[in-house]
Amino acid sequence: MEEFHKVRRLPPYVFEQVNRLKGSARAAGADIIDLGMGNPDLPTPKAIVDKLCEVVQDPRTHRYSSSKGIPGLRRAQAAYYARRFGVKLNPETQVVATLGSKEGFANMAQAITAPGDVILCPNPTYPIHAFGFLMAGGVIRSMNVEPDESFFGPLERAVRHSIPKPLALIINYPSNPTAHVASLDFYKDVIDFARKHEIIVLSDLAYSEIYFDENNPPPSVLQVPGAMDVAVEFTSMSKTFSMPGWRMGFAVGNERLIAALTRVKSYLDYGAFTPIQVAATHALNGDGSDIAEVRNVYRRRRDVMVESFGKAGFEVPPPAATMFAWAKIPEKFRHLGSLEFSKLLVEKADVAVAPGVGFGEMGDDYVRLALVENEHRIRQAARNIKKFLSTADETMHNVISLNTRR
């Protein structure tokens, strides 16, 4: 039977192949150390859980909620932006709550995209950045991911050679998967470019609070004068407060774009469960100590991974931010591509990672390592990988023989 049109436009979900292999290995008794999915293992802070438990006792909160977010939650998000970035937002017209930043991106794509619209999207990048627009009928033009002067040459060429002219530019810093961090000067150049060419800027700032240089916290694109004319920014509570399953995020910025997203959402959902929204409000209005502790845990894990994997012969550049490391596949295995290398790690080292090609074809020389196992498990993963790499010649001989027989 022929696939439906929108499903047909989506490429195969490569992560599923690694997940199946991981599941089979676990079913056979293997102890798989999972550094693949970016699923935070840290518990949601007790004060946030307690607030949820308190509010859920009130049966009035069990009714339909507000799609755009309850007023107190939108005010709390506006207050967070004022404290953290010095950005003033109108909670009535410039803030909408989303069911995580992923849903926000997907529904923004539905709100603004006409069939054939060109979207400038980083590659590699978080899959929804491209797939949300593909499902909405858009056309993706891949862009460089480095937030420096090399970003703008390809951007200029994309604008000159795209018909129709690009509708929107997606930026994602701190980046998932590459962990690149952008400067405020870079954002100024992006906004100048977008205003000059009348292009919408959609910024994914989901990892704004997971950074490791205390003197240089990641900025918001909305700090740039004039950004409100063209930009919307998406944030999430999933990583900041270890609330991934709660599905709580936000879109903030340009009033026209926020109004479009709000209208589309009003047809699709009634918002998150009210007790979740109240608990999220409580979290945003907190003193920040919970965020600092989460950041410290990821910093310690990062340092352990960089050191132990390096000693094992697998160089991992220390990420400046996010809960991920973006590492080049060891040279001997690079020709296999990231999917086959990731499968080998599950089969031969009991370690699961995310293949870079799942974030775009330009990521195929890399794998993404998530800091979602404790320090002991990360060291064990390094020992397993060291043993695997020590048998690399034998492994490669077997792989080549298998491929020849095929």
Number of domains: 2
Overall pLDDT metric: 92
Strand content: 5-15%
The CATH class name of the largest domain reads Alpha Beta
The rounded Rg comes to 22 Å
CATH architecture of the largest domain: 3-Layer(aba) Sandwich
User: How many DSSP helices?
Assistant: 15
What is the string of SSEs from the N terminus onward?
A: HHEHHEHEHEHEHEEEHHHEHHEEEHH
CATH topology of the largest domain: Aspartate Aminotransferase, domain 2
Keywords: Aminotransferase, Transferase
Domain Aminotransferase class I/classII large: 31-383
Protein name: Aminotransferase
Cofactor: pyridoxal 5'-phosphate
Concise account of the structure shown:
By secondary structure, the protein is of the alpha/beta class.
Note down, in words, how this protein is organized.
Helix 8 links the parallel strand 5 and strand 6. The mean pLDDT is about 90. The protein is α/β, with parallel strands linked by helices. The longest helix is centred in the C-terminal third of the chain and has 24 residues. It contains 15 helices and twelve strands. About 45% of the residues lie in helices and about 15% in strands. It starts with a helix and ends with a helix. The strands form three sheets. It has a seven-stranded mixed sheet, with helices on both faces. Strands 9-12-11 form a three-stranded antiparallel sheet. Helix 5 runs parallel beside helix 6, helix 5 crosses helix 9 and helix 11 packs parallel to helix 14. The chain has two domains: about 160 residues, Alpha-Beta Complex (Aspartate Aminotransferase, domain 1); about 240 residues, Aspartate Aminotransferase, domain 2.
